[in-house]
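tool=predict chain=A
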Amino acid sequence: MADRDKGPRKATSFDVARVAGVSRAAVSRAFTPDASVSPKTREKVYQAAKELGYRVNYLARSLTNKRSDLVGVVAAGLDNPFRTLQIEHLARMLLARNFRPILLPTSPEADTSTVIGQLLHYAVSGVIVTSDAPPTEICEQCAAEGVPIVLINKGNDIPFVDRIISDDRMAGHLAATHLIDSGARKPAVMAAPAISYTARRRSEAFIARCKQLGVEAQFLQVRINDYRSGYDAAAELAASGIDGLFCANDYMACGVIDRVMQGRGRDDTPPLSIIGHDDIPQASWTAYDLTTIRQPCDVQAEKTVDLLMSRIVEPDLTARVEFTPVTLIRRRTA
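tool=predict ok
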C-alpha cells in the first residue's frame, strides 16, 4: 500500500538504455545537443524514452556539469509592449539554440544583489540584460563569476561583456529629417534621458540633426518613458506651439496621441506631427496609425544569442559591440 501511495516509479536513463538496447552513455549523448551519436541510435533512444515517459532532468544534469542550460534574461519596464516583444524573440531564439530562458523582472529601484543571487544560484550558462534594467552590479559580479553576459541597448562599457545596440543616432536623424521635411518648424523630442541610454542617444541625435537643418528643437523631459508620462506631458503641447514631436518610444507616443485626440474623432489627423520609436504592434492599430522608427527585435535576438554562445566557448574574447539597423515606418501621424 505504501508503494502505491508514492505513485509509479519514474523512468531513469538506465531504463531507457535497457529498452533501447544501448549503453547509458549513448542515452546521455542522444539528449545532448551536438553530441556525437548516430541517427539510428538517437531514434531508438527517443522511442524508448517516449514509451517509458522519460524526461531529462536538466537541473540535475547541471549539478554535474557545473552549468545549467538556463540563460537569465534581466528586464525592466514589462508594461511596455516593446519589452514583451523583445523578450518573446529572445526566448524563442534561446530555445532554438537548446537553452532555456529564465526571466528576472527588475526595476531601477530593485535590490540588484537579489537578482544577482538568483542568477548565480541557478548556475546559469549566461545572462542577457535589456535596456532600463540596472546593469553595472549585475554585470560586474557575473563577469567575476565567469558567467557570460550580453547587454542590449545599454551604454556601459565593461570588460568581457558584449553589447547589441540599436542605431539610435540614425533613429534621431531619421525622425528629425522626416518631421522637418513634412513642414515642422517648431519640433521637439520627448524623453526621460536620465534613466535610459537609448532615450538619451535618440534625443541628442534628433536635436543635432534639427540644428543641421537650421531648426532649433525643444527638449521635453519626462520622468519615465511610458504611456502615462506621454499622456500627462501632452497637456502642455497645445499652448507650446510645437508642430512636430519625436517620442523616445511608441509607448509614450500612444499616450501623447490619446491626450491630444481627446474630443476629436478617431479618424482625424493629430494637430501636430508625431513620430515614435520601436514599431510595437499597437503602432499600426487604427486608433494610432503611428509613424515610427522600427527596431528589429528578431535581428537583435539572433545577434545577442550568437554573441552569448561565442562568449561561452571563448570567455576571454575582447568585449564586442554590434549595431542593429533602424527603419522609418510611415503612417498617418507624420
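Residues 297-313 form the longest helix (17 residues). The chain has a mean pLDDT of 87.
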